[in-house]
Amino acid sequence: MSDKLFGGVWLLLCLGGLVIGWGITTEYSYEPVGPRPFPLVILALMALCAVGLLLRKPDSVRWPDRRVLRRLLAMMVMLMAYGWVFESLGFPLATALLTCGIAMLFGASWWAGALSGIISGLLLFYSFDRLLDVTLPIGSWLS
Predict the structure, then answer these.
(1) From the CB of residue 89, how many other CB atoms can be counted at a distance below 10 Å?
(2) In the chain, what is the greatest distance between 2 CA atoms, to the nearest angstrom?
(3) Where are the domains of the chain?
(4) Alpha-carbon span 37 to 78, nearest angstrom
(5) Distance of CA 8 to CAs 54, 57, 61, 63, 139, Å?
(6) To 5 degrees, how large is the angle CA 119–CA 121–CA 123?
(7) pTM here?
(8) Half-sphere exposure of 107 (CA within 13 A, CB side)
(9) How far is C-alpha 9 from the chain's CA centre?
(10) What is the pLDDT of residues 14-52, one digit of tens each?
(11) Contact 101, 113 (CB under 8 A)
Protein backbone atom coordinates (compact mmCIF):
# COMPACT_ATOMS: atom_id res chain seq x y z
CA MET A 1 0.00 0.00 0.00
CA SER A 2 2.77 2.46 0.84
CA ASP A 3 4.43 1.82 -2.56
CA LYS A 4 1.21 2.74 -4.31
CA LEU A 5 0.71 5.80 -2.13
CA PHE A 6 4.27 7.01 -2.68
CA GLY A 7 4.06 6.25 -6.42
CA GLY A 8 0.80 8.17 -6.76
CA VAL A 9 2.08 11.24 -4.91
CA TRP A 10 5.36 11.08 -6.84
CA LEU A 11 3.50 10.85 -10.16
CA LEU A 12 1.35 13.88 -9.29
CA LEU A 13 4.45 15.88 -8.34
CA CYS A 14 6.18 14.86 -11.58
CA LEU A 15 3.15 15.84 -13.66
CA GLY A 16 3.02 19.20 -11.89
CA GLY A 17 6.73 19.64 -12.54
CA LEU A 18 6.24 18.81 -16.21
CA VAL A 19 3.56 21.49 -16.49
CA ILE A 20 5.84 24.02 -14.81
CA GLY A 21 8.87 22.87 -16.82
CA TRP A 22 7.06 23.26 -20.11
CA GLY A 23 6.81 26.99 -19.41
CA ILE A 24 10.57 27.47 -18.97
CA THR A 25 11.80 30.01 -21.47
CA THR A 26 14.80 32.26 -21.78
CA GLU A 27 15.24 35.54 -23.55
CA TYR A 28 18.52 34.53 -25.11
CA SER A 29 19.60 31.14 -26.35
CA TYR A 30 22.92 29.97 -24.99
CA GLU A 31 22.39 26.41 -26.17
CA PRO A 32 20.81 25.04 -29.34
CA VAL A 33 17.87 23.53 -27.43
CA GLY A 34 17.59 26.00 -24.51
CA PRO A 35 17.02 25.25 -20.83
CA ARG A 36 13.74 23.33 -21.16
CA PRO A 37 14.76 19.77 -22.20
CA PHE A 38 16.84 18.79 -19.16
CA PRO A 39 14.12 19.21 -16.50
CA LEU A 40 11.49 17.76 -18.83
CA VAL A 41 13.54 14.61 -19.50
CA ILE A 42 14.38 14.13 -15.81
CA LEU A 43 10.75 14.63 -14.77
CA ALA A 44 9.50 12.29 -17.51
CA LEU A 45 11.92 9.57 -16.34
CA MET A 46 10.84 10.08 -12.75
CA ALA A 47 7.18 9.86 -13.83
CA LEU A 48 7.95 6.53 -15.56
CA CYS A 49 9.50 5.25 -12.34
CA ALA A 50 6.41 6.38 -10.42
CA VAL A 51 4.19 4.49 -12.86
CA GLY A 52 6.43 1.47 -12.34
CA LEU A 53 5.81 1.71 -8.60
CA LEU A 54 2.07 1.90 -9.21
CA LEU A 55 2.05 -1.17 -11.47
CA ARG A 56 4.38 -3.52 -9.62
CA LYS A 57 3.32 -6.14 -7.11
CA PRO A 58 3.56 -4.58 -3.66
CA ASP A 59 5.93 -5.94 -1.05
CA SER A 60 4.77 -6.58 2.47
CA VAL A 61 5.53 -3.45 4.45
CA ARG A 62 6.19 -3.17 8.15
CA TRP A 63 6.11 0.40 9.36
CA PRO A 64 8.86 1.44 11.78
CA ASP A 65 8.20 1.75 15.49
CA ARG A 66 7.62 5.06 17.28
CA ARG A 67 11.27 5.54 18.20
CA VAL A 68 12.36 5.43 14.57
CA LEU A 69 9.51 7.70 13.51
CA ARG A 70 10.54 10.25 16.18
CA ARG A 71 14.10 10.17 14.87
CA LEU A 72 12.85 10.69 11.31
CA LEU A 73 10.74 13.62 12.47
CA ALA A 74 13.75 15.09 14.29
CA MET A 75 15.82 14.76 11.11
CA MET A 76 13.14 16.52 9.06
CA VAL A 77 13.01 19.36 11.62
CA MET A 78 16.81 19.65 11.50
CA LEU A 79 16.80 19.81 7.69
CA MET A 80 14.11 22.51 7.70
CA ALA A 81 16.05 24.47 10.33
CA TYR A 82 19.18 24.08 8.20
CA GLY A 83 17.42 25.69 5.25
CA TRP A 84 16.08 28.44 7.51
CA VAL A 85 19.45 29.42 9.08
CA PHE A 86 21.66 28.64 6.08
CA GLU A 87 22.24 32.26 5.03
CA SER A 88 22.33 33.88 8.45
CA LEU A 89 24.68 31.36 10.09
CA GLY A 90 26.55 30.60 6.89
CA PHE A 91 27.33 27.33 5.19
CA PRO A 92 30.21 26.13 7.42
CA LEU A 93 28.43 26.61 10.76
CA ALA A 94 25.00 25.47 9.56
CA THR A 95 26.51 22.36 7.98
CA ALA A 96 28.55 21.63 11.10
CA LEU A 97 25.44 21.86 13.30
CA LEU A 98 23.39 19.71 10.94
CA THR A 99 26.11 17.06 10.67
CA CYS A 100 26.55 17.00 14.45
CA GLY A 101 22.80 16.62 15.00
CA ILE A 102 22.42 13.83 12.45
CA ALA A 103 25.48 12.04 13.84
CA MET A 104 23.94 12.14 17.31
CA LEU A 105 20.65 10.80 15.90
CA PHE A 106 22.61 7.83 14.59
CA GLY A 107 24.12 7.17 18.01
CA ALA A 108 27.41 9.09 17.91
CA SER A 109 28.75 10.69 21.06
CA TRP A 110 28.59 14.48 21.29
CA TRP A 111 32.32 14.92 20.72
CA ALA A 112 32.35 12.61 17.69
CA GLY A 113 29.35 14.45 16.25
CA ALA A 114 30.95 17.83 16.92
CA LEU A 115 34.25 16.73 15.40
CA SER A 116 32.61 15.32 12.29
CA GLY A 117 30.45 18.44 11.99
CA ILE A 118 33.41 20.80 12.20
CA ILE A 119 35.47 18.79 9.74
CA SER A 120 32.65 18.35 7.24
CA GLY A 121 31.52 21.99 7.46
CA LEU A 122 35.01 23.34 6.85
CA LEU A 123 36.02 20.74 4.27
CA LEU A 124 32.82 21.11 2.24
CA PHE A 125 33.02 24.89 2.37
CA TYR A 126 36.62 24.81 1.17
CA SER A 127 35.75 22.30 -1.57
CA PHE A 128 32.84 24.29 -2.92
CA ASP A 129 34.33 27.76 -2.46
CA ARG A 130 37.92 27.18 -3.57
CA LEU A 131 37.95 24.05 -5.72
CA LEU A 132 34.58 24.27 -7.47
CA ASP A 133 34.27 28.07 -7.34
CA VAL A 134 30.70 27.91 -5.99
CA THR A 135 29.89 30.91 -3.83
CA LEU A 136 28.36 29.91 -0.50
CA PRO A 137 27.24 32.23 2.30
CA ILE A 138 29.80 32.69 5.06
CA GLY A 139 27.15 34.01 7.45
CA SER A 140 25.89 37.44 8.34
CA TRP A 141 27.37 37.11 11.82
CA LEU A 142 30.90 37.05 10.32
CA SER A 143 30.52 39.91 7.85
Answers:
(1) 21
(2) 56
(3) 2-55, 66-131
(4) 34
(5) 7, 15, 17, 19, 40
(6) 65
(7) 0.64
(8) 2
(9) 17
(10) 999 999 988 887 777 666 667 778 889 999 999 999 999
(11) yes
